[in-house]
């Protein structure tokens, strides 16, 4: 595996009594092994079909790559309509691998359509999108595993209507692909009726675990990203997740460290990449960790209110905003740094004038500066006895991003197993979805509407 995790600063040897003692590994050996086995034994079964995604067949991958080639040539803009797990993978990977100002590059330098991932139904955002894209040269991928999500269905209805008006029905159809569960849900039925291209999502692949399925792969192919390298990285991380030896299994060891940290009162997990391209991998992680581990009951039905609140920060930007709190506030956080050894490009700090006060900067590169600041922040946190660890990628490319996201997924699955909760459901999210259906008058949700309307609300407690 190319990814490395340095967890020295989680240990008592670095941060004193607030750290984890060496004896914890021995004491919890049975728990760790049980978690490892339960996750590995369930691979490819039930809700763990995501474990099989990186081993996609040549023919299925070929279909996705052919779609990508076709769309890449034809589209000026490519729009993903989806939300949550149906959008965050595309956002995280595309922003890691594309030029940071991809959409502003001229077409010949971009070599791919402009990308927009529309993961909200703010009306101003939809209007803004339609102000900047010409639907006649735009291709849409409507991604919803359930095929029922109100946000995505609404977006789809709006754009399909516009496409039909602009191009006529036959041409409009060619601009829509649908990624959903085959044979299930409103969107699948519509896709069959209208004759859209359909990419299937396996029944046992949940939204937040779907980036290695067609949910992620079809957009990546349309953008000309290295899909094969991405899957190779995922397979490397999957292989490492099998290791019994903790130091060879980064996802297992860090799941355990977070599990221990939670027991020590660290109920906040700060994900802090020091690389702009990785900014949205922190969003990806936050959804995965929050939606998977935040559960009211455990697998025995006992009320546990499990979970650790993930939050994101960006190095170095948030050194000037959040780090004061991390260094001197409550001892309730683990900070996970993501470091990059070698940036894809660098810039030397130069100055032809003699400014003594800036002398120390001259001759260094921005890459050296960002990494020195990361090491300095790690040092300051550790000196203040704050738990932190560092994930290092040698560089950002399709393979290392594949490793990183699969590492996150196994880490989450192992942590869920240690907490003895159902990692793969999301009853809290479903409750909100049902209430939305009810409030918008969907048939079959009449009693839910009554429940929502009768929820206690008192004007006495409204301010302003
Ligand atoms: O991880 C999840 O399951 C959720 O975040 C879903 O991805 C999100 O709610 C969207 O669901 P769907 O893909 O069914 O539209």
Describe the model.
The protein is an alpha/beta fold. The protein has 19 helices and 12 strands. Strands 1-12-11-7-10 form a 5-stranded mixed β-sheet, with helices on both faces. The radius of gyration is 23 Å and the shape is globular. The termini are far apart. The mean pLDDT is 96. The chain binds 5-phosphoarabinonic acid. 5-phosphoarabinonic acid binds at residues 83-86, 144-146, 149, 152, 206-208, 291, 426, 429. 5-phosphoarabinonic acid (PA5) is lined by residues 83-86, 144-146, 149, 152, 206-208, 291, 426, 429.
The helix/strand class is alpha/beta
Q: What is the terminal separation in angstroms? A: 55 Å
- The strand order across the widest sheet is 1-12-11-7-10
Number of strands: 12
Quaternary structure of the protein: single chain
Fraction of helical residues: 40-55%
List the helices and strands and how they pair.
Elements (H helix, E strand, L loop, with lengths): L3 E3 L5 H4 L7 H5 L1 H13 L16 H17 L2 E5 L6 H10 L9 H4 L3 E5 L4 H10 L5 E6 L6 H18 L1 H6 L1 E5 L5 H9 L2 E4 L13 H9 L4 H14 L9 H14 L4 E6 L5 H15 L1 E3 L5 E4 L2 E4 L10 H6 L4 E8 L25 H18 L4 E6 L4 H22 L7 H13 L6 H8 L11
Parallel strand pairs: 2-3, 2-4, 4-5, 5-6, 7-10, 7-11, 11-12
Antiparallel strand pairs: 1-12, 8-9
5-phosphoarabinonic acid binds next to loops.
Q: Concise description?
A:
By secondary structure, the protein is α/β, with parallel strands linked by helices.
Descriptive terms for the model:
13% strand, 12 strands, binds 5-phosphoarabinonic acid, single chain, five-stranded mixed sheet, five-stranded parallel sheet, 464 residues, alpha/beta
């Amino acid at each position: 595996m190319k990814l490395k995790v340095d967890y020295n600063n989680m240990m008592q040897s670095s941060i004193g009594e607030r750290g984890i003692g060496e004896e914890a590994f021995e004491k919890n050996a049975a728990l760790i092994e049980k978690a490892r086995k339960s996750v590995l034994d369930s691979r490819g079964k039930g809700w763990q079909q995501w474990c099989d995604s990186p081993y996609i067949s040549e023919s299925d991958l070929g279909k996705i790559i052919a779609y990508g080639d076709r769309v890449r040539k034809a589209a000026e803009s490519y729009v993903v309509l989806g939300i949550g797990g149906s959008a965050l993978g595309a956002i995280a990977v595309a922003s890691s691998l594309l030029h940071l100002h991809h959409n502003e590059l001229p077409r010949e330098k971009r070599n791919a359509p402009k990308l927009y991932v529309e993961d909200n139904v703010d009306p101003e955002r939809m209007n803004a999108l339609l102000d900047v894209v010409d639907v006649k040269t735009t291709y849409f991928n409507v991604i919803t595993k359930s095929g029922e999500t109100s946000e995505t269905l609404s977006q789809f209805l709006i754009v399909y209507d516009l496409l039909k008006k602009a191009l006529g029905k036959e041409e409009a159809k060619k601009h829509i692909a649908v990624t959903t569960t085959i044979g299930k849900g409103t969107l699948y039925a519509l896709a069959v009726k209208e004759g859209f291209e359909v990419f299937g999502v396996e029944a046992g692949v949940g939204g937040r675990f779907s980036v290695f399925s067609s949910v992620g792969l079809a957009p990546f192919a349309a953008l000309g990203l290295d899909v094969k390298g991405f899957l190779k990285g995922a397979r490397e991380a999957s292989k490492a997740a099998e290791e019994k030896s903790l130091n060879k299994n980064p996802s297992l060891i860090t799941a355990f460290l977070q599990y221990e940290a939670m027991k020590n009162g660290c109920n906040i997990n700060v994900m802090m990449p020091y690389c702009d391209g990785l900014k949205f991998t922190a969003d990806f992680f936050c959804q995965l960790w929050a939606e998977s581990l935040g559960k009211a009951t455990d697998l025995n039905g006992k009320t546990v209110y499990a979970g650790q609140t993930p939050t994101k920060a960006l190095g170095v930007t948030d050194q000037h905003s959040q780090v004061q709190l991390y260094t001197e506030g409550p001892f309730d956080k683990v900070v996970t740094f993501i470091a990059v050894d070698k940036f894809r490009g660098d810039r030397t700090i130069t100055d032809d004038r003699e400014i003594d006060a800036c002398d120390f900067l001259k001759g260094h590169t921005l890459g050296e500066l960002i990494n020195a600041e990361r090491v300095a922040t790690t040092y300051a946190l550790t000196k203040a006895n704050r738990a932190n660890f560092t994930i290092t990628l040698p560089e950002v490319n399709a393979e290392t991003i594949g490793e990183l996201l699969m590492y996150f997924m196994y880490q989450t699955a192992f942590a869920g197993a240690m907490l003895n909760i159902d990692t793969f459901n999301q009853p809290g999210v479903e409750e909100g979805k049902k209430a939305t259906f009810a409030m918008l008058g969907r048939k079959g949700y009449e009693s839910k509407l009554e429940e929502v309307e009768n929820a206690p609300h008192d004007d006495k407690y409204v301010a302003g």
